[in-house]
Every structure is written in structure tokens, then in C-alpha cells.
Amino acid sequence: MSYASGVDLPDGYVAFVKASCPTCRLVAPALLRLRKAGAPLTVYSQDDPRFPEGAEPLDDSDLRRSYEAGVEVVPTLMRLEGGEVIERLEGWLRMDWERLTGVAELGTGLPSYRAGCGSRTLDPGIRELLAVRYGGDKFRSRRVEVAQLEDEFEAMFERGWTDGLPVVPPTPERVLRMLEGTDRDPQEVAAVVPPDLVECTVEKVAVNAAMAGCRPEYLPVVLAALEAACTSEFNIHGVLATTWSAGPVVIVNGPVAERIGMNAGGNALGQGNRANSTIGRALQLIVRNVGGGRPGGVDRATHGNPGKHTFCFAEDERGSPWEPLSVERGLPVGTSAVTLFAGSGLQPLVDQQSRTPESLARTYAACLQVVAHPKLALSWDAVLVVSPEHARVFREAGWSKVRLREELDGLLRRPRAEMVRGAGGMAEGTPQSLAGAHVPKFRQGGLLIVHAGGTAGMFSAIIGGWASGTVGSEPVTREVRE
């Protein structure tokens, strides 16, 4: 079986060692015996061109050969034929070395087994440097040189790459490290990003994710959020262009949220968690830097909201009395997913007295009624974020999410006469032509309910939306491809 092809190494036996590795020092006599047996042997030493003495080692202190051969453990012994690696051994196992080389006495006097050491190619920061140096030109993004005396952080501000806060310089090493978070081709087009309708490759996503401060394992979530944002249903162009305060809210479900350490508990909608903070920020930077959506240009928000820096959190599925949002929206249980919602900010609500679901639902309805305006209906969506203490009330009463939503729908219906323009002395309101004696606040599917927040505090929260449906934005759910 061929383990690799096209590796520029000589045929025969090739060993990679380093003098600082105890196992490499242990097997040095075996390498000398192999050379004395007349076997074609080439030894590359990663840290001392004189080691092992007598084996005529070649200097690989620049690690080029080790990197190209994919060496991760020393000692590594390979057998090559016609430039192909036929077999490789890592560490020392006497019976395997003797089998591979055909030298029966190769390990005389040596222990039967010793684990190897980590290759220098795996030292912190080295792998990315080697990938840039020897991995070929993997990038298609334009490279920008910063003058020697120029402050790189100020340079990025001046070039308009930031969201008003400092960003991390997207060096080739950092971008390569970010790309390790996905097996997708860096040149695959992940989305066409409005408003300029620019093709955004996975590489470009990685560049902006690095700038936002993401870790590589966050990249699949950023990609899924971008794919959702650039659908016609979500309408990121409209979310940008409206003078309303909306921006994308990223709600994460499934195993990925726990795996990358997202916060679904206390302060989940606030600062302090790297994944929450940087995933949402990466999406905003892509829209800005790739799509051209900048404040004062296409972004025409009258006020905006702090969530336009980043607004991303995970749903607390473990503690929830209900099915996750992603499951409710049609994905299988256990699927990692993001749901994008065009949110206009946070409206906290308090109810420390209700001990029945009927009472608590009335509190929710009263607070939800004011989303956008108490007299506007059907054209605005919302997310209700139910805290664990409030969720306990519904759990103990056996209320499902469907039951809560049905209760809220009934409570949120208002007499048409109270909702029309001019009623109550307010010119704002629903059109006179609106049919029906009673008007529902939200359209079918326009109220999303999620479970998140700290275990202390009888508070919940409302994230108001923007114009809903075909005239505005639909919530969009996408699976995270890991």
C-alpha cells in the first residue's frame, strides 16, 4: 500500500531523527547496523547534523524534508520504492523494524518497544511557518504589505477593515491555521455576499475569521452562518439597507456548540465568551470587507444596535424542557446548526411573582406586544429567550413549546378597532383594510422560542425583529458542515 506519492526522497530506507529525543538516541545503534548491513539508508536529523555519528546524517534543521514527508513522530523509518512511501514506522518496535528492513539482528541488545517523540514540525507555531514556506502558494487573496515602521493595527483601521474595534492581523500563518478547521477546499465559493455580490471563498472566510479572533474549530459555524445570511430568504442586503436597527443574530444548536465551548448559560447574550463573541463578529466582518456593507454606505441604520458588532449565542439544550430550535425548524435531533434571525436588539423582561404558566404567559404577551410598536402586527417577528427559572414553571406544569405558543397567540390577539391607524390617538397602527375582528401580533412562525440564560434570575428576554417575510427577512436555519 502506498502511504504517499511524489515525496522527494531517495529510494531505500529513510529515517528522521532528532538528537534531543531519547528514543532516537536509543535506536542510533540500529541505524548504524542497518548501514553496515549494506542497506540503502538516508538519515535526516532535525536538530543536530552530526547525529547519529557514523550514520552520515543529512541536516534537516530547516525541516523541509520532515514537512514534505509529513513526519509527526521521531524516529520515523520509511521504505521507498520509485519515490513512493511503501511503509512507515513511528517510534521503536524491534520486531517491526527487523521485519521492514529484513535485518534479523537489527535490535540486538535494545528494548522491544519505546514510544517516539514529537517531531519538531509539530512545535507551536512551526507547522504554519513551514506550510507558508514550503507548502506552495495556497492563497488567492490579495496580499497587503505593511511598511516596517507602520503600526499594523492602525494600518487596518486606516484601510477600513475593522468594525471600529481592533482586529487580529490575518497573517498567512494565522489563515492557514484557521483553514485547518474545515476540510473544504479553500477556493470553494462559500457564498455570494451582498450588497456588492462578491464571491466569497472559504479562504476569504478564514481571513475574516482570523481577524475576528476565531479559533479554527469555529470556522464551520462561521461558514454556516454566512451561507444562511446570503440566502434570498434572510436577505442580508435588506437587513443592511434598512434604516431600522436590525442585524444578524446567530443562534447555534447541536453538539458543535458544546464542543467549541459556546455559552448558553449566564450572560449568554453578552460578552465574555470567545466563541460567542467572535463567530458573530466574523460574519459581520465578511459582510463588511467582502460584501461592502459598511455604515454610511449601504448600511443606513438610523440607530443600529450593539449587536451589530456581534450577536451570537447557543441554545441551552441540556436544561431545556423543549425540543431545540433547530429540531423545531426541521433538522434531525443531534444535528449541529445555526439559525439566523434579523434582530434589532435586546428587551429584557422581569416576572418574579408568577408561579403558574398562565400568569407567566400573560407577562410574556404584554411585553411582546410592544415589539416595534404596540399597534403594529403581522409584519414583525421576534425571538423569545426563556430563562431556566422561567422554563421551570412551564416544565412543572407540563407545557410544551407548542402549548406556550398557542397561549401566546391567543393573548396577543387584539381587537381590530384598537389596532388601526388613529385608534387611541396614535396615527401609527395597522391599515384600515386589515381583515378580521381580532388581529394577531405575529404571523404564523413569526415567534421563535429558545431556552438560554443563567440559572438564577426570573428574567427572560425578547429580541425584536425587522419587517418579516417577503418584504423583509425570514429566519433561516442551516446545518453546520463539520
Rg of Cα set: 30 Å
The helix/strand class is alpha+beta
**Order of strands across the widest beta sheet?**
3-2-1-5-6
Overall structural domain count: 2
Mean of all residue-level pLDDT scores: 94
Number of E strands: 21
Overall form: elongated
- Give the N-terminus to C-terminus distance in angstroms: 29 Å
Helix content: 25-40%
Sheet with the most strands, sense and barrel status: 5 strands, mixed
Q: What can you tell me about this protein's structure?
A:
The structure is a single chain. The protein is of the alpha+beta class. It has 2 domains: 12-133, Glutaredoxin (3-Layer(aba) Sandwich), CATH 3.40.30.10; 157-479, no CATH class. The protein is 29% helix and 20% strand. The chain contains 16 helices and 21 strands. The protein has helices at 22-36, 64-68, 94-101, 126-134, 152-158, 172-179, 202-212, 219-229, 236-241, 255-259, 274-289, 325-328, 357-368, 388-397, 401-411, 416-419; strands at residues 12-17, 41-45, 58-59, 73-74, 76-81, 84-90, 92-93, 113-114, 117-118, 189-193, 198-201, 247-253, 312-314, 337-343, 346-350, 380-386, 414-415, 438-439, 447-451, 459-467, 476-479. A 5-stranded mixed beta sheet has the order 3-2-1-5-6, with helices on one face. A hairpin with a 2-residue loop joins strand 5 and strand 6 (84-90). Helix 4 (126-134) crosses helix 6, helix 7 (202-212) packs across helix 11 and helix 8 crosses helix 11 (274-289). The longest helix is centred in the middle third of the chain and has 16 residues, at 274-289. The two termini are 29 Å apart. Residues 1-6 have low confidence and may be disordered.
